[in-house]
Specification:
The complex is a heterodimer of chains A (255) and B (300).
Chain A lengths: L2 E14 L2 E7 L2 H4 L5 E4 L10 E4 L2 E3 L2 E7 L3 H6 L7 E8 L12 E7 L7 H6 L4 E8 L7 H5 L3 E6 L6 E2 L2 H7 L6 E5 L2 H14 L2 E5 L15 E4 L10 E3 L6 E3 L3 E2 L1
Parallel strand pairs in A: 8-9, 8-12, 9-10, 10-11, 12-13
Antiparallel strand pairs in A: 1-2, 1-7, 2-6, 3-4, 3-7, 5-6, 13-16, 14-15, 14-17
Chain B lengths: L4 E3 L2 E3 L3 E3 L21 E3 L16 E4 L2 E4 L8 H12 L5 E6 L4 H10 L7 E5 L16 H14 L4 E4 L7 H10 L4 E4 L3 E4 L1 E2 L4 E2 L5 E5 L4 H14 L4 E4 L5 H10 L3 E4 L2 H4 L3 H15 L14
Parallel strand pairs in B: 3-16, 4-7, 7-8, 8-9, 9-10, 10-15, 15-16
Antiparallel strand pairs in B: 1-2, 5-6, 6-14, 11-14, 12-13
Helix pairs in contact in B: 2-3, 3-4, 4-5, 5-6, 6-8
Classes of the chains: A alpha/beta (255), B alpha/beta (300).
């Protein structure tokens, strides 16, 4: 279920350079599931479109957004202070399918700014075993301490300054981690590699996709991904990332 | 106080509808908007067969607006008839079906298939490239526009609104071509062709390179074009282009529009349509306007 409402900023801090941790008190908290996101509306009238930002964590009556400043909209959000009003629409999207992990060994993968969207999943997922594999550029391991509270964490860094040198899949190989299901969010090359890995290993992978969006409610058809089969809503081989996604079975999308 | 307006014998409870493509077929926005309150729902363009649309990115933001190059993705007329029309018929609002095509025959097929459907008006998107005539849009050539309007009017069972492209030298010529071919009304403006370049990636922001610009930044162009057309033809006009609030809507009405459409502003605030309707009513009360029809074309 989605609602459109004005939330109130509880707190905001810059947790590492360019990455902000924003907590907003909103009724959307009660409606949200791991892997869903909210549309956040800028106030500046020249910046007309809402920004899709994933929900990193849900606490009682509040959502936590951890986002990178990449442009005008997110730059405006970075200036929000406790008590400020912020217009939201949410929660948007399908979220991760928790039921797919029941009785299975699950690996949760996040890369870069794809790390925050799997935090709430790490808390809520009930699996026979679960490990989070987080991929970072360098040893600035933002949010890792939050994950440590709920789940066993492995790290990959590009230069090897922390954890395994390489990417999140290199961690699985280096540490001989076997799994039955993968949940992932991160940059497209990482998701493509995970799709390939899962197909080779014949395991399930649920990947969270990103795309430029306008409406966030499934009306504008801006944010589509090509699908293997004809999509029931579009009647063509395209699914809406904001509505049928953002999480897809990796086998069902052409990325 | 009267907010009812009429176009080609069809009555609308108020002059506010939505711009095609910004509101789906109403289903998605019905979670936020009471569709019963709208004068009409104008649907996403529908073609004779399903269209896949363009590659992504399909949308990007520009200063005070956005560009889109969706490519008119739609499920085709059969799914539309079986799913979207029955959905909209549950509401006490009028239905304007937007029609698109690649050839005149494509349009005629859709219009024919809608003949016995419970919809109130047809809006014809003539900004699609005419694939048989050098891919120039039907709406960018007065003769092509006259021809397609004329052929559609011969078979259409519902009133026909021709949606004009602003990407022409003189829009009033297009309005006259549509009127003389028998169009019941015109709607304008469609989006203005634009481009954005991503200087960091050294490429186009949209996969399609160009896209249609909409949003508040285009409003003055749209108001001017509505005014020009209102002075050139007698048929009613549905005005649109950057309408974000009631003041914008009233500008279009004063320029000569009978109805107005909210487009990109639905993305900015899902409740925009309702705020525009309430804003118009408040304006009329404050200014002692008893009939919305008295405001139309009051600037000359």
């Amino acid at each position: 279920m989605k609602i459109s409402e004005t939330g109130k900023v509880v707190s905001q801090k810059e947790i590492t350079k360019g990455i902000f941790d924003l907590v907003i008190s909103t009724k959307i908290a009660e409606l949200s599931k791991p892997g869903q996101f909210v549309m956040v509306y800028p106030k500046d009238g020249t910046t007309i479109l809402p920004r899709p930002i994933s929900i990193a964590e849900v606490t009682s009556g509040a959502i936590r957004l951890v986002y990178r400043v990449v442009g005008k909209g997110t730059n405006e959000f970075s200036g929000l202070k406790a008590g400020d009003a912020v217009r939201l629409l949410g929660s948007v999207g399908n979220g991760f399918p928790l039921e797919k992990a029941v009785g299975k060994r699950a690996v949760l993968m996040g890369g870069g700014i794809g790390v925050p969207p799997i935090l709430e999943l790490s808390k809520e997922l009930l699996a026979s075993s679960k490990i989070a594999v987080l991929g970072y550029r360098d040893n600035d391991l933002f949010l890792k301490e939050d994950f440590d509270k709920y789940i066993e964490v492995k790290v990959a860094t590009e230069g090897g300054s922390a954890g395994t040198r390489g990417n999140v899949l290199d961690v699985l190989r280096a540490e001989h981690i076997e799994c039955d299901v993968i949940y992932a969010c991160g940059p497209m090359p990482m998701l493509r590699a995970i799709k390939k890995y899962a197909e080779e290993k014949n395991i399930e992978a649920f990947i969270s996709l990103e795309e430029r969006m306008a409406c966030g409610v499934g009306a504008c058809l801006g944010c589509v991904v090509k699908t293997k089969e004809k999509d029931h809503h579009s009647n063509v081989n395209n699914a809406r990332i904001c509505t049928e996604g953002p999480v897809f079975d990796a086998r069902e999308v052409e990325i | 106080m009267n907010t009812e307006v009429k176009i080609a014998g069809v009555s609308f409870k108020n002059p506010v509808t939505v711009a095609s493509g910004t509101f789906g077929s109403g289903m998605e926005y019905s979670e936020f908007v009471d569709l019963n309150r709208l004068g009409a729902v104008t649907t996403k363009g529908v073609s004779n067969v399903p269209w896949t649309g363009n590659d992504t990115p399909r949308v990007c933001e520009v200063y005070g607006g956005m560009l889109n190059a969706i490519g008119l993705q739609n499920p085709g007329i059969e799914v539309f008839k079986n799913r979207d029309i029955p959905f909209l018929n549950k509401f006490d609002t009028k239905i304007i079906v937007n029609v698109c095509g690649k050839t005149v025959e494509d349009y005629l097929e859709v219009v024919e298939k809608l003949a016995d459907e419970p919809v109130d008006m047809l809006e014809i998107n003539v900004s699609c490239p005419n694939v048989k005539e050098g891919a120039i849009a039907f709406g960018q050539n007065a003769d092509a526009l006259f021809n397609i309007t004329n052929q559609i009017k011969k078979i259409a069972k519902q009133p026909v609104v021709m949606k004009l492209s602003p990407n022409v030298t003189r829009i009033s010529e297009m309005a006259i071509a549509a009127e003389s071919a028998g169009a019941d009304a015109i709607s304008l403006i469609n989006t203005i062709t634009g481009m954005k370049i991503d200087i960091n990636r050294r490429t186009f922001a949209l996969a399609n390179k160009t896209g249609g610009m909409s949003g508040p930044a285009i409003k003055p162009v749209a108001v001017r074009m509505v005014y020009e057309c209102a002075n050139a033809v007698k048929i009613p006009i549905i005005g649109m282009g950057g309408i974000s609030n009631y003041e914008d809507a009233i500008e279009f009405i004063m320029a000569g529009a009978t109805m107005v459409s909210v487009g990109a502003a639905n993305f900015v605030n899902p409740n925009t349509t309702i705020e525009v309707i309430e804003g118009i009513e408040n304006f009329m009360r404050e200014k002692n306007v008893s009939d919305i029809n008295d405001l139309r074309g009051c600037v000359r």
